[in-house]
Design goal:
The chain has 356 residues and is an alpha+beta fold. 44% of the residues lie in helices and 19% in strands. The chain folds into two domains: 72 residues; 274 residues, q2cbj1_9rhob like domain (Jelly Rolls, Sandwich), CATH 2.60.120.
Length: 356
């Protein structure tokens, strides 16, 4: 067998090159299509894995919550019996009224008072013991965790104690006591902002407790300067400090440059550049900060490097404001100019905590 001539070999190479040139665009296009399909498949699989991880996390969280509830039911009947005996004998109303009477009204940067030793010690200890397990707060993102009071899902002891706190103590005792305490500044503010109510605005208003919730805060928590929703005229913030809790990182009170009335019923957020610190209320056991949502601002934060790293900070918040029927009646009387400051959905965006 003889070798091909150089001419034949060159011709064969040329034909191969021409064939490669013809095939190359189609090959590249095919590879590109295959690559696109592969990337789409990878993207789809990634999304499915993320969905499965989220579902697994939700199921795992529910399993932990149910296990926590089951484990906490042990001896709950005895705990509830002891609590029932406590509330029958403890002078809760007299104690609260005396504590509120001792607390001086302060007017800078807005009407407020700080009530120490708010509850009888035994009742306060029962509240702390009845704090729902931290696992039950985990349905919300970290630093936005809260449970509505009365509690819907909690150990029976927690549900009984906090139902009593919300319905008997907050609504039945603290509400009328604080309305009497704030009668003068609240009346003056309502006369100015809602003149349709007349000279005695509180006479025809039904004031109730609303937005009651237990707040759980952790390191890195920030809520920027703001005023609370306007229809919640008075905010009550009770610190649920436990033994050993650091009293730092309570609530900051601010004056506001070029302050103006909040428009609409939602929280009124204010830039930090306009705020100047006027006071810092320490986080102490059995203490309640109560203030009128009129002017100025308040905020709070816990440093990201606060120790211990698993720090948990609890508080109980509720507001005193007009009920739904009163709000509807008042809105019907407002002028178009006034309506801009009070109309809109009555919704508590504070629950989302405009945190950084």
């Amino acid at each position: 067998m003889t070798d091909r001539s150089p001419h034949d070999r060159n011709g064969a190479v040329a034909r191969l090159l021409r064939a490669a040139q013809l095939l190359r665009p189609r090959t590249i296009a095919q590879l590109a299509k295959n690559d696109d399909r592969l990337q789409q498949q990878v993207q789809t699989l990634t999304e499915e894995v993320q969905t499965l991880k989220a579902q697994l996390g939700h199921v795992t969280r529910q399993e932990r919550q149910l296990r926590t509830l089951f484990e906490s039911e042990y001896d709950s009947n005895d705990d509830i019996s002891r609590f029932d005996a406590l509330v029958r004998t403890a002078p809760i109303a007299d104690h609260i009224q005396a504590a509120v009477a001792r607390a001086p009204m302060q007017y800078h940067p807005f009407p407020h008072c700080v009530v120490d030793d708010l509850l009888p010690a035994a009742y306060y200890d029962a509240l702390i013991a009845a704090l729902p397990p931290a696992e039950l707060f985990a349905d919300r993102p970290v630093n936005k965790q809260q449970l509505t009071v009365p509690l819907d899902l909690a150990p029976r002891y927690s549900m009984e104690v906090w139902r009593h706190m919300a319905k008997v103590v907050a609504e039945g005792i603290i509400r009328p006591t604080m309305l009497a305490k704030f009668h003068e500044p609240l009346t003056a503010w309502l006369r100015e902002k809602l003149p349709v109510l007349g000279d005695q605005p509180l006479e025809d208003l039904r004031i109730t407790c609303s937005d009651g919730r237990i707040l759980l805060r952790r390191p890195g928590y920030v809520i920027h300067p703001h005023r609370d929703p306007k229809w919640g005229f008075i905010t009550c913030l009770m610190y649920l400090a436990r033994k050993g809790d650091d009293e730092r990182w309570g609530t900051q009170l601010f004056t506001v440059a070029d302050d103006n009335e909040a428009e609409g019923p939602r929280p009124h957020w204010i830039s930090e550049e306009r705020c100047q610190l006027a006071g810092d209320v320490a986080f102490r056991p059995n203490r309640m900060l109560v203030f009128l949502n009129s002017v100025g601002a308040h905020g709070a934060h816990i440093p990201a490097d606060a120790k211990p790293a698993n720090l948990e900070r609890y508080a109980y918040q509720f507001r005193l404001g007009a009920d739904g029927k009163s709000i509807k009646s008042i809105r019907a009387k407002l002028t178009p100019e006034q309506r801009a400051f009070w109309a809109g959905k009555v919704h508590d965006d504070y629950a989302g905590d405009r945190a950084s």
